Amino acid sequence: MKTKLSAPSLVLAAAAVLVLSGASALGSLGAGHRAAAREGFTIRGHVGGLYPGARKRLSLVIHNRSARVIHVRSITTRVRDARRGCKGKNVRVSRYSGRLRVGPRGWQRVPVQIRMLQAAPDACKKAVFRLKFHGTATR
Amino acid sequence: MRWFALTVAIAAAVAAACPGGAVAGWRIVASGGAAAKAKTLGSGNRPTGSVSGRRVTLTWTASSYAEGGAPAGYVVRRFDAASGVEQVVGASCSGVINALTCTENSVAKGSWQYTITPATANWRGPQSVRSLTIVV
What we know:
The structure holds two protein chains of two kinds. By secondary structure, chain A is an alpha+beta fold.
């Protein structure tokens, strides 16, 4: 059987599709933000004693803020410039990749390696490098 | 009524295909901050010297980082005691010395003062105060 739709009907239909899908997307986005706030995890870690050629163990502390078990899959670190003449690229942090189980509202430690390049300039003495972590996890 | 059913079906399909909710549901992203601190290189210690003919032997005590640990080596510098002008140090004491002593051979006659600067790769600590004048 052939269905014949009038032009106004088509316009109305298209508008309805857009409104419904847009609302759905916004709803998902809102839910995503709420989920991130409620179910996210935090990464912390400090280290000192860097000098040219030094390799140190940086112990990252993972805190699962959610009420469900999560599995941390990856952690990458971005090193910010310390000051003029002392770029962040003089410090390298290894990437974590695996499947670390963190219980509900629990804590876990992840060791990664941090090193200062032998070529780090004199301007890096006493420098403080800000580290920015980025991690992903699954349930 | 048919077009309405069609509309609802399409909207449902689009909503289901929207990835936002699905990703937030099982993949969690976290971020955080921290800091990494570099060491502070301590100053050099004043050297002492002894003369034997035209050979000057210098000794000094080890420097350290403020946080502990020793620098990789030391840079020796020689100055004219009267004018303060820096001189070129002989080969055996030039560059970064990985010891607490060095002997400069064939030193020109004159009055000299030496300093010690801690060094690790490109890092240099504060220079020591000048040694007592050494007469060759």
